[in-house]
């Protein structure tokens, strides 16, 4: 079972160590334990936690393998931010910041990452309150946080400094892209979601307000 899951992780994310895989497995167990006490994810998705949340997050590594500084906004239960923190824990110079205003969820992120041996950089603040606290990242991520027009609004201070955004989106993403065009001009690349055939990952950069 473990070998099959490890092979699938390598297929999705690219090269990672066995220790990194073990940390992800440990994180999965911690997540399930905490989920009994606080709402970290929809209960209906917990049976498929590894594929639906962990691997779905891990695929971002393949899209930006050389990026060192990552920022995840609205991190919630840690997808994709905590997964990226684990994947990049062994990479020299890498750092991953997680922004989560819900203090119970932020406490989970700190505890879970500490438990798997990853130094957490968790900001228990609103996104708007972290612009000065977090320097220019290479990549900004968000998953199941807000419609695309609002995501661009929230992350614009970092994107205008040269960051690229990788946003998980569902089947209605074209409508969100169209609505975003009413307010913003931006560069867009659509990446196939390797885990969910009905989803997509939008790469957004260089936003300019119309």
TrEMBL record:
- A GO molecular-function annotation: methyltransferase activity
Looking up Pfam families in the UniProt record yields: GidB (PF02527)
Has UniProt tagged this entry with the keyword S-adenosyl-L-methionine?
A: yes
- Enumerate the residues binding S-adenosyl-L-methionine: 74, 79, 127-128, 143
- Please list the reactions this protein catalyses: guanosine(527) in 16S rRNA + S-adenosyl-L-methionine = N(7)-methylguanosine(527) in 16S rRNA + S-adenosyl-L-homocysteine
* This protein's UniProt keywords: Cytoplasm, Methyltransferase, rRNA processing, S-adenosyl-L-methionine, Transferase
Its localization reads: Cytoplasm
UniProt xrefs under Gene3D superfamilies: Vaccinia Virus protein VP39
User: Biological process (GO) annotations?
Assistant: methylation
Function statement = Specifically methylates the N7 position of guanine in position 527 of 16S rRNA.
Protein name (record): Ribosomal RNA small subunit methyltransferase G
**Which species is this record about?**
Nitratireductor rhodophyticola
Upper classification of the source organism reads: Bacteria, Pseudomonadati, Pseudomonadota, Alphaproteobacteria, Hyphomicrobiales
